[in-house]
Amino acid sequence: MLKTIIVDDETPARSELKYLLDELAQTEIVAEAASVRDAIERLKEHPCDVVFLDISMPEATGLQLADALQRLKYPPAVVFVTAYSEFALDAFKVSAVDYLVKPVETDRLAQAITRVREHVSLHAKAQRAERIPVEKGGKKILIGIDKIRFVMARDDYAYLQTDSDRYFSTVSLAQLEKRLDGHGFFRVHRGYLVNLSLVEEIEPVSGGTLLLVLNGSDEKIPVSRRRVAALKKALGL
Fold it and tell me: How many whole angstroms separate alpha carbon 98 and alpha carbon 77?
């Protein structure tokens, strides 16, 4: 399911689009917003795959928001949904995936969703293709980011754990955290960075902390007490 945010200053328009999207049953609407300012707050709280975005709104336009989103490392796909056909060229200048004119027809909306799926798939492949330089047995090796289970700090260096091996990195955990931003990793402790997609069990510990168990492993990773709330939010708990 595509995680979706609808942005339109008119409540009936949001309701109509939500109804059509629910009919197609290919999206999960995680938030709605009535302005660009509101949309920015929703986007902070709810990372998404696609934003269905009106153009003409008070204070700031959908085009301005779309332009700002393109500055993100991994921006969501943008589909404009507007009553005005004359902004289509401007929309594609800010890398819109599609441009729908109200009233939206179900078949046309389905085409837009297909384009969004293709867009999201291509970007996911590009992210997985990124690699990190590490060392093993005196050799320099490149490992795919998608292969990393967790990263563990050791003084000013770090170890990266995959399914089959542990690799040494001369890069600090703080630097790796920046490098892995947007790839589903979370700093659960000052000494650990974890791939959240691999979390299988969460064990409460006295004192308000937690232990994480990743699938395919018995190793338990500690979560600092000050990171518990943020972790639960990241996992949708």
Answer: 9
Read off the tokens for 182.
């947007």
The per-residue pLDDT for range 122-163, each reduced to its tens digit, is: 877 666 667 888 988 888 888 888 889 999 998 888 999 998
CA distance linking residue 24 with residue 200, whole number of Å? 31
Copy the structure tokens of residue 14: 């949001």
Preceding amide of 12 cis, omega within 30: no
| Three-class DSSP category at 63 | helix
pLDDT in the model for residue 129: 61
d(CA 30, CA 25): 14
Residue 23, burial from CB neighbour count under 10 angstroms (0-12, 13-18, 19+): exposed
